[in-house]
């Protein structure tokens, strides 16, 4: 039904969507197609509101609109039907459409429309229907879920599916893991089973050998048991005999029954057989059937007789066997009876003999038993020895196998490590190569940007980035950094900071871009302000006093300290024990110490009173470790020798452990345990901690191991040496041990040295002392170097010795100890690889640790024997002892020399005055400092010390520092020289005038003694952070400005490149010159031909050409003006001015930074020296001097103007500038007025830079002079106040001289603070001491002033020099920027001029070419191309086409020597195909057709002219050559022969062609299409040497062979099929024909089978007829020779093949069908003109072949071998007589007819008609 509906919908209704029965429900589920059907029948007017979507809302809309229409038609439709259709329920849509189909058919018959049907209904029904429709919509809306629900369900379904897939994948993975685990377990179990089996097998073999050696005497069996066994056997035999007899009886009864039944049946069958045979004889004449029946009956009778004989023979054999059994049983019974009597007699005899010899046997048995016992003992002992030897051999084999496995594992680990090293090296090389590529590409990019002139600064920055491993290209943008920057942004920040640091170093050291010009080299100031450096150092020392170095012992110890390291089994313990025998040293092994500590904890070792005396060194080390532990904040490593930390640790850990076990722990027990724990010794406490960690399954931490080792070292006397055995093993252990033994942390010292290298602005050269490296904890470290394989070999040797040294007899204790040793050896074997890998991983770090500061590492080759190794270690140890003694002696000598120097200097200055004022302060500071030094702060980082902020002058200055240091003492102005400089009171011993000598030292020189007066404590606390702020702000501002300058350089290069490329693109903008040229060329070529030679026409053309040239020149001029305007716009852009303004602001910022530094330094020096003079620092209300910046924007920024002054740009007018004389010109060529403004602006900017520099320089000079003036004013005030001040009373003068200077200072302060009192009338006379004190104070004040002013003037000189350098570099930078821009502007002008000249030249060339064509009166065929500045004649484009070449006539085939042309062959094929489609035609009909063709009326175009002379007899002769089976002619063979000449194929060529056809035939149907036929090809191809004639009117030569290949397809193809199909095997059978018929048959057999068929040797290979068929139809004299040659060659080849027949030749099988196909047996003539004789002939071939196959044992006609078939006489006769595969020689008949025609003349057509009649 659905098919009928689909046909109705698709064909009649023609719905928009094709409906099929499979998709019926889905197509109508939306309701759209139902509405379309109703709309087609004019029932659904609102169809336009239907939607084709499949969402729920669309379906609801469609079905709601369908419901009234369906009810109107009377179709049953409700919400259930709609729901079924929507949900695609099977059959619902079909049922509805069928009802609709019937209703619509009725409607069509009635002819009513929808409106008429609606009006026919009553009104009440309409209202009811509307209500029903509303209810329907509501119910349907409830039934149909919303589209969102569908989508949600789809999403949930998709996620459920995904969850299922994930769960399945998880289960699959879990299952695979389980399978792998099970597989591993199975493999392990199989391995264990195999191992157990082998061990059991070996043990069984050994036990078998032992058992074989034991001789066992079998116990004789009793007579009763033998008799019982024999009786059972006899019973069994009897039972078997009875069973056999019963079976025989049953068998005989069955046979008798069968015989009786067969006899009765045979009688009846004979009667019936007689009748049937008679009937058969009467009906059939053949006797075969009767003979077969008789033969079968005879065979049955013979078989029955044989069965009867066999049965009788079997019965006889069974009877004979039964009788033999009975006879044997009787004999056995008789023997048993006789034996029973003989046994009784023997027993009686034995008893008698036993009674007779009883006494003799007793004592002989005792002797024999003792001998047996001894032999058994000896044998058991030997067996035990053999068993032990076998087990030892097995253990040795297992041990060797395990050693091999260990070596393999080690080699695998070594390979993995080598691969990891290679991977690391490869990644490093790849990273370096990437950076090289980045550098190369960056250089290439900037070569393009800078026109191969990369700035030196950029190249140097890239090289620095490359050498430091930073990426050259930007990885990310750092303009807007987030709170957590990415990795790329962090790298970019590091790059920026690195380049900033390099630029700052160049700026500070005045190298690179900031190198001094030649005119400034001579005026280079000193590189360092020594006075300022001294001030800063003193302030820092006051704020953070340096730590007192740990006092070394006065008498250093001669005891030697060292350690022996190496891999496992390298001989460490052996060498250490050897040393302990010869030297008084202590050996410490960490394993032994840990065990002893744990044992001490178990023994409850407690502190005694004598212990605290020895604990002082322990406390030092433990405190250091304690602090280190606090820093690392590792609770597991927190321990100490002090009782409190350990108590707390143990309490907390005990609490945690106990709380894990039980929740309730009484506090009293905790207190008791803590008290008892605190009473333990340090070693016991450490042992407790170690045991706790080991019980938890954790390893002992490095801190705990080091503390155990340090505790043991502290127990050793100071004068005794010690050596560590295999400790430390890691770098962390080495660091902790060295820190615990020496108190130094090398990492912190390195950090301190790095901080010292940070560039500071002022350095004190006197304080730059190099910190001596900390002493090492060891005097030597010996490494016993050994390879991994040697370590494994030694382990195997030790274990092998342990196996071999086991004695066979051991007591229980020895065996237990041996088992423990074996367990330890097994653990060691398991851990050996981890130990070796751990040593290889840690040793490079340890080697670097022990070789870098002081090389104390000694490497010894340990791959020697034990004695040599011990001797080497001993020699090295003695050498180290000698070195240690020499060191200690040298230190003692140095100390003695220092003491002597001190003793000599002390008496030389007895009259020295009391120490200067700072000393008491220093003492005060030293006391708390010493107190602090007692605390464990040795490892504290000295980052706050003054050395962290200092740097030597040579380090700070770099390369230029050397030249500056040479002039340091000579250069620089003094403080004025007004005040004479005197020595300090500490140095001056006499106040008497000294004779004239060298000049006094200048402040800051090496001879100058700095003023170190005490200052208030508040001043350093304020000035040190202030100086740090000065340094940081100065460095940051310099770096920021240099960074902006660096980035602006990139911007300038990119901008100049952009304007260059942009201007070039502007010059290449398209013009419209080509349009005018093309139009002129079109007009020129369209001129009529008769006007070309007219002079007026030529004049007109010349005028048009002139107009074209003028127009092109106008275009060029206009473009030139536009380019010039573009260049002017680029020049007049504000970019250059803005860039120069920004650059000037950057340099002004540098000047501001230098000015700020000078002002801040001046204020710092002023505060320092005023504080030293005990004056209150002045409050400088003056604002800092600000360097004005260039105002770039015209807007008023009030806040900016309040902070930084702005200077407007100076713009010089052009008239004013022209009147001025120029001192120098940037433009060295002719004056370019477009660049005048650039140069004038540059001069204005240059003047602005110089003015700003002068302003800053004068500000510095004013500040210095103001400071000096202020000093002078203060001195004058002080002098006036001193003169007017009253002297103090006499009591103050009588004070002791021993009062401390600070008190005097305080009095001075108080005196200065008071107002000057009024002078008294009576002046007080001063004493000599007071006068000296006053003089000292004045000298000190003068010295402070001199030092202050010298430092200030030094800063002034340095700052002035820096400002001048900044000014010079700014001018050079601006000049370089302007030159770059001017070069670009000049280059743009050059490009503009060159382009204009080239465009004009191209226009001239165009006019020359055009004038030439005008004068020569020739058209311009090729396009004239004028684009931009190029002009050429485009040979690829022609404006008018060439005249068409003459059409070459098609090739025509000509008749040659009577050969039929392809057209004639096709005509004959069509005629024959109409008459006989199957290819067979009667010989008479064939002769008549040929005779008709020969006539003039029919054969004019069908056959060549030479065939027209054939007579009827000749035609009959020709027909007889082609006759098949004496009556029929194969016309395809005839056309094949007449189409000669074509290359006759060899048999190999035929087989290859067959294989090609089979390869093309994909479906193996045996047929191919024309395309496949041409693809496979034949054995020959078309003539490739066709010469193309030069004359285009001459036709091409006819390629006959190519047309023949196509003709052969048409000849043999079956055109009834579409497309035509060719049976290629049948075609190749035609081509198998040969002049020799036998050879043709064998060729056909080869083609049919597909392989070569060898001819038997007996078969004569004769060619009866020699004909010519290969060459063209030439006369008789010419043709035979090549033909005979070819045939003879083929014969020779065949003979060779026949001679060389292989053994397995012709083994291929051939079927009946193939044989019939070869011998034309399979072809049936179905033409109406066929006779029954053909059928008979085919049936005869088939029947004969059937007989042949049956004769060759192929009764079912299965395929048989070719060799067997060829031996059959019928086949041999058939092959020799079969002539269908012989090529007839029709050329002979044609030549004869030509010869006759040549002698008789031409025959008339009337004669031919007569012959025909």
Walkthrough of the structure:
The protein is mainly alpha-helical and 1813 residues long. The protein is built from 58 helices and 17 strands. The strands form 6 sheets. Strands 2-3-1-4-5 form a 5-stranded parallel beta sheet, sandwiched between helices. Helix 24 packs parallel to helix 25, helix 33 (1018-1067) packs antiparallel against helix 35 (1095-1131) and helix 33 packs antiparallel against helix 36 (1135-1172). The longest helix is centred in the first third of the chain and has 93 residues, at 358-450. The radius of gyration is 64 Å and the shape is extended.
Features:
single chain; about 1800 residues; mainly alpha; 5-stranded parallel sheet; 3-stranded antiparallel sheet; 17 strands; about 65% helix; extended; disordered C terminus
How would you concisely characterize the structure shown here?
It contains 58 helices and 17 strands. A five-stranded parallel beta sheet has the order 2-3-1-4-5, with helices on both faces. Strands 10-12-11 form a three-stranded antiparallel beta sheet. Strands 13-15-14 form a three-stranded antiparallel beta sheet. The C terminus is likely disordered.
**Percentage of residues assigned to helices:** 55-70%
- Compute the CA-based radius of gyration: 64 Å
User: Percent of residues in beta strands?
Assistant: under 5%
Spatial order of strands in the largest sheet = 2-3-1-4-5
Shape: extended
Task: Tell me which oligomeric state these chains represent.
Answer: single chain
């Amino acid at each position: 039904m659905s098919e009928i509906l689909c046909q109705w919908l698709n064909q009649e209704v023609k719905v928009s969507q094709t409906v099929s029965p499979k998709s019926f429900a889905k197509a109508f589920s939306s309701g759209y197609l139902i509405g379309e059907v109703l709309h087609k029948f004019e029932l659904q007017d609102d169809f336009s509101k239907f939607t084709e979507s499949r969402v729920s809302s669309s379906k609801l809309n469609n079905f709601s609109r369908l419901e009234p229409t369906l009810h109107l038609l009377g179709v049953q439709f409700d919400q259930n039907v709609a729901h079924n259709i929507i949900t695609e329920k099977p059959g619902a849509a079909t049922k509805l459409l069928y009802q609709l189909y019937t209703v619509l058919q009725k409607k069509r018959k009635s002819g009513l429309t929808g409106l008429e049907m609606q009006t026919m209904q009553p009104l009440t029904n309409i209202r009811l229907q509307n209500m029903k429709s509303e209810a329907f919509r509501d119910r349907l809306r409830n039934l149909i879920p919303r589209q969102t629900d569908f989508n949600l369900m789809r999403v949930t379904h998709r996620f459920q599916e995904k969850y299922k897939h994930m769960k399945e994948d998880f289960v699959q993975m879990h299952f695979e893991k389980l399978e792998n685990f099970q597989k591993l377990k199975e493999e392990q179990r199989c391995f264990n089973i195999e191992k157990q089996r082998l061990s059991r097998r070996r043990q069984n073999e050994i036990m078998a050998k032992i058992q074989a050696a034991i001789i066992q005497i079998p116990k004789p069996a009793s007579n009763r048991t033998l008799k019982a066994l024999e009786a059972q056997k006899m019973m069994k035999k009897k039972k078997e005999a009875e069973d056999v007899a019963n079976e025989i009886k049953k068998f005989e009864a069955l046979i008798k029954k069968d015989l009786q039944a067969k006899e009765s049946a045979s009688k009846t069958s004979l009667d019936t057989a007689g009748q049937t045979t008679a009937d058969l004889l009467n009906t059939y004449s053949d006797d075969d059937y009767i003979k077969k029946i008789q033969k079968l009956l005879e065979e049955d009778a013979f078989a029955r007789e044989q069965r009867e004989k066999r049965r009788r023979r079997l019965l006889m054999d069974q009877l004979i066997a039964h009788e033999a059994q009975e006879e044997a049983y009787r004999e056995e019974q008789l023997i048993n009876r006789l034996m029973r009597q003989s046994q009784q007699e023997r027993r009686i005899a034995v008893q008698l003999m036993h009674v007779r010899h009883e006494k003799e046997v007793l004592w002989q048995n005792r002797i024999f038993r003792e001998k047996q016992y001894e032999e058994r003992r000896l044998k058991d002992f030997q067996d035990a020895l053999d068993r032990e030897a076998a087990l030892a051999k097995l253990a040795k084999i297992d041990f060797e196998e395990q050693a091999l496995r260990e070596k393999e594992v080690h080699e695998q680990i070594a390979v993995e490590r080598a691969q990891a090293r290679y991977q690391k090296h490869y990644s490093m090389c790849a990273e370096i190569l990437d950076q090289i590529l980045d550098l190369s590409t960056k250089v290439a990019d900037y070569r393009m940007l800078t026109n191969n002139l990369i700035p030196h600064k950029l190249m140097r920055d890239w090289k620095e980035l490359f050498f430091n491993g930073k990426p050259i290209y930007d990885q990310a943008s750092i303009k807007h950094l987030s709170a957590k920057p990415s990795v790329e942004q962090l790298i970019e920040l590091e790059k920026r900071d690195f380049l900033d640091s390099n630029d700052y170093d160049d700026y500070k050291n005045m190298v690179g871009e900031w190198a001094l010009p030649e005119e400034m080299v001579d005026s280079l100031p000193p590189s360092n302000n020594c006075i300022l450096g001294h001030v800063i150092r003193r302030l820092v020392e006051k704020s953070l006093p340096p730590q007192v170095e740990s006092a070394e012992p006065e008498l250093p110890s001669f005891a030697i300290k060292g350690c022996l390291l190496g891999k496992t089994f390298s001989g460490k313990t052996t060498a250490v024990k050897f040393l302990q025998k010869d030297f008084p040293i202590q050996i410490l092994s960490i394993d032994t110490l840990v065990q002893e500590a744990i044992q001490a904890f178990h023994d409850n070792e407690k502190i005694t009173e004598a212990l605290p005396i020895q604990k002082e060194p322990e406390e030092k080390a433990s405190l250091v470790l304690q602090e280190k532990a606090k820093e690392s904040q590792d609770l597991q490593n927190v321990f100490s020798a002090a009782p409190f930390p350990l108590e707390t640790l143990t309490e907390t850990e005990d609490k945690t452990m106990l709380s894990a076990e039980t929740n309730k722990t009484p506090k009293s027990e905790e207190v008791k345990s803590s008290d008892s724990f605190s009473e333990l010794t340090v070693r016991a406490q450490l042992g407790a901690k170690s045991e706790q960690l080991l019980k938890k399954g954790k390893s002992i931490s490095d801190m705990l191991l080091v503390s155990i080792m340090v505790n043991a070292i502290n127990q050793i006397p100071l004068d005794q040496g010690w050596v560590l055995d295999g400790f430390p093993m890691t770098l962390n252990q080495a660091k902790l041990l060295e820190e615990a033994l020496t108190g130094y942390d090398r990492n912190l010292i390195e950090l301190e040295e790095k901080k010292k290298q940070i560039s500071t602005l002022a350095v004190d050269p006197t304080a730059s002392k190099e910190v001596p490296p900390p002493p090492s904890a060891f005097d030597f470290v010996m490494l016993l170097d050994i390879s991994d394989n040697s370590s494994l070999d030694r382990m195997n040797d030790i274990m092998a010795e342990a196996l071999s040294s086991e004695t066979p007899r051991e007591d229980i204790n020895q065996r237990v100890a041996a088992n423990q040793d074996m367990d330890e050896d097994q653990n060691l074997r398991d851990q050996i690889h981890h130990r070796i890998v751990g040593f290889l991983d840690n040793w490079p770090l340890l080697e670097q640790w022990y070789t870098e500061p002081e090389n104390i590492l000694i490497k010894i080759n340990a791959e020697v024997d034990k004695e040599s190794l011990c001797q080497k270690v001993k020699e090295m140890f003695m050498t180290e002892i000698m070195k240690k003694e020499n060191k200690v002696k040298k230190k003692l000598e140095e100390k003695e020399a220092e003491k002597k120097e001190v003793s000599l200097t002390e008496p030389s200055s007895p009259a020295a005055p009391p120490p200067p004022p700072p000393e008491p302060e220093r003492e005060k500071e030293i006391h708390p400092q010493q107190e602090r030094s007692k605390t464990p702060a040795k490892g504290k980082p000295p980052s706050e010390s003054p050395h962290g902020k200092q740097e030597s002058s040579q380090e700070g200055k770099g390369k230029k520092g050397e030249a500056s240091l040479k002039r340091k003492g000579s250069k620089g102005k003094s403080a004025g020289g007004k005040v004479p400089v005197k020595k300090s009171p500490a140095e001056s011993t006499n106040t008497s005038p000294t004779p004239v000598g060298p000049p006094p030292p200048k402040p800051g020189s090496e001879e100058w003694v700095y003023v170190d007066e005490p200052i208030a404590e508040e001043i350093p606390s304020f000035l040190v952070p202030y100086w740090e702020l000065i340094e940081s702000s100065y460095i940051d501002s310099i770096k920021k400005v240099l960074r902006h300058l660096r980035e602006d350089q990139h911007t300038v290069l990119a901008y100049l490149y952009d304007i260059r490329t942009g201007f070039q693109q502007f010059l290449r903008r398209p013009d419209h010159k080509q349009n005018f040229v093309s139009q002129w060329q079109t007009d020129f070529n369209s001129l009529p031909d008769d006007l070309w030679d007219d002079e007026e026409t030529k004049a007109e053309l010349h005028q048009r050409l002139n107009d074209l040239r003028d127009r092109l020149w106008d275009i060029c001029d206009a473009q030139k003006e536009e380019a010039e305007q573009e260049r002017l716009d680029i020049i007049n852009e504000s970019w250059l001015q803005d860039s120069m303004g920004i650059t000037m602001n950057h340099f002004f910022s540098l000047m501001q930074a230098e000015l700020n530094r000078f002002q801040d330094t001046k204020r710092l020096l002023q505060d320092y020296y005023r504080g030293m003079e005990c004056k209150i620092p002045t409050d400088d209300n003056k604002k800092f001097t600000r360097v004005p910046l260039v105002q770039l924007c015209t807007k008023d920024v009030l806040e900016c103007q309040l902070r930084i002054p702005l200077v407007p740009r100076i713009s010089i007018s052009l008239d004013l500038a022209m009147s001025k004389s120029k001192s120098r010109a940037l433009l060295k060529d002719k004056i370019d007025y477009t660049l005048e403004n650039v140069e004038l602006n540059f001069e204005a900017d240059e003047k602005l830079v110089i003015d700003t520099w002068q302003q800053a320089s004068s500000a510095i000079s004013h500040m210095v002079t103001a400071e000096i003036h202020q000093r002078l004013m203060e001195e004058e005030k002080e002098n006036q106040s001193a003169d007017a001040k009253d002297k103090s009373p006499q009591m103050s003068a009588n004070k002791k001289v021993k009062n401390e200077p600070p008190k005097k200072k305080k009095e001075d302060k108080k005196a200065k603070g008071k107002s000057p009192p009024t002078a008294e009338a009576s002046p007080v006379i001063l004493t000599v001491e007071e006068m000296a004190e006053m003089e000292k104070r004045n000298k000190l004040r003068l010295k402070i002033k001199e030092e202050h002013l010298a430092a200030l003037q030094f800063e002034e000189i340095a700052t002035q020099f820096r400002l001048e350098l900044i000014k010079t570099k700014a001018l050079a930078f601006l000049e370089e920027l302007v030159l770059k821009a001017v070069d670009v502007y000049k280059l743009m002008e050059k490009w503009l001029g060159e382009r204009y000249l080239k465009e004009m030249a191209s226009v001239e060339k165009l006019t020359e070419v055009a004038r030439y064509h005008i004068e020569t009166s020739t058209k311009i065929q090729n396009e004239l191309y004028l684009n931009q500045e190029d002009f050429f004649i485009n040979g690829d484009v022609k404006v008018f086409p060439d005249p068409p070449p003459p059409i070459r006539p098609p090739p025509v085939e000509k008749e040659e020597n009577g050969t039929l042309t392809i057209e004639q062959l096709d005509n004959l094929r069509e005629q024959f195909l109409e008459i006989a489609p199957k290819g067979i035609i009667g010989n008479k009909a064939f002769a008549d057709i040929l005779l008709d063709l020969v006539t003039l009326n029919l054969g004019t175009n069908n056959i060549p002219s030479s065939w027209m002379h054939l007579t009827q007899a000749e035609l009959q002769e020709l027909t007889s050559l082609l006759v098949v089976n004496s009556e029929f002619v194969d016309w395809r063979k005839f056309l094949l022969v007449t189409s000669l000449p074509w290359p006759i194929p060899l048999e190999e060529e035929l087989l290859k062609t067959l294989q090609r056809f089979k390869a093309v035939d994909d479906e193996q149907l045996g047929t191919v299409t024309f395309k496949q036929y041409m693809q496979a090809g034949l054995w020959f191809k078309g003539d490739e040497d066709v010469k193309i004639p030069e004359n285009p009117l001459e036709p091409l030569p006819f390629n006959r062979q190519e047309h023949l290949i196509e003709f052969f397809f048409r000849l043999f193809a079956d055109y009834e099929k579409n497309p035509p199909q060719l049976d290629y095997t049948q075609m190749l059978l035609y081509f198998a024909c040969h002049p020799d018929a036998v050879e043709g048959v064998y060729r056909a057999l080869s083609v049919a089978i597909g392989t070569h068929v060898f001819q038997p040797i007996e078969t004569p290979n004769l060619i009866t007829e020699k004909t010519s068929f290969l060459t063209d139809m030439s006369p008789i004299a010419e043709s035979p020779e090549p033909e005979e040659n070819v045939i003879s060659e083929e014969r020779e080849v065949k003979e060779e093949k026949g001679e060389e027949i292989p053994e397995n030749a012709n083994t291929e099988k051939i079927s009946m069908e193939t044989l019939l196909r070869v011998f034309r047996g399979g072809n049936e003539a179905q033409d109406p003109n066929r006779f029954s004789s053909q059928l008979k002939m085919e049936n005869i071939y088939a029947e004969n072949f059937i007989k042949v196959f049956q004769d060759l044992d192929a009764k079912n006609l299965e395929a048989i071998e070719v060799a067997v078939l060829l031996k059959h006489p019928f086949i041999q006769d058939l092959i020799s007589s079969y002539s269908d595969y012989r090529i007839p020689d029709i050329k002979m008949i044609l030549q004869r007819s030509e010869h006759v025609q040549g002698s008789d003349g031409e025959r008339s057509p009337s004669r031919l008609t007569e012959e025909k009649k």
